[in-house]
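TICKET #2291
ISSUE: user wants both folds in one file
ATTACHMENT 1:
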Amino acid sequence: MGVQIETITPGNKTNYPKAGDRVSMHYVGSLENGTVFDSSRKRGQPFKCAIGVGQLIRGWDEGVPKMSVGEKAKFVITPDYGYGANGIPGLIPGNSTLIFEVELLAIE
């Protein structure tokens, strides 16, 4: 249970975000069946947020700090680290395992 991280492309292996850092990322989120439910790439703008401060799902708060700048990784996030039993009505069914391809662009 939790978040599994598989590196797709290594980053610089020196700059890692820590709790409270603001980061810039691209991501594509999908369900296990391949249905894409969200994508910063489709919107054409990186997603910017503070990491490790409870603004995001637990899988991201725990997974992103393990990435270095420039890294692209695949996160497999179990429901307890994602949106849980409730999901997001009309978008993510309850108890869904989530798949994210995340690219850490910068720590701001």
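ATTACHMENT 2:
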Amino acid sequence: MIEKIAFGGGCHWCTEAVFQSLIGVEIVEQGFVASTGANDTFSEAVVVHFDKEKISLRELLTIHLHTHASTSEHRMRVKYRSAVYAFSAAQIDQVNSELAVLRKDFEKKLVIKVLPFRAFRPSEEQFRIYYYNDPEKPFCKTYIQPKLDRIAGKFPDKLKNRS
């Protein structure tokens, strides 16, 4: 069964490539997500459509936490909100439950927010599939490839074969 959830953390080019590289992730929509209340502005994020029979929500959360600055409250957090955007109250509960367990893997406090999904605005076409369209770009080699290398080192069984 295909489910969806949205993630924000760093630039959406990086986040998109991370999730596109994973077994069980069927679609990654790159763009901007807004929530409600104090988080109602759009922030860079991706909507991930995944097959929960092939990759679990916990695995997605774990990889997300390890591929962005999930313990750093830096000056760019408005643009790069560290967040999980849930599509239902039940999904919010599930994410909070999983994060309660995953927090133990980090020495510093996680800054990630669990928020209700409100709206999505896609990136311009020319910026989508950014990494896989040209992995030799300097930005890709400097910022995205190290994240993919981290996944290969920590979660090698979750990577799609892209050869």
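RESOLUTION: both attachments delivered.
EXTRA DETAIL ON ATTACHMENT 2: Residues 138-154 form the longest helix (17 residues).
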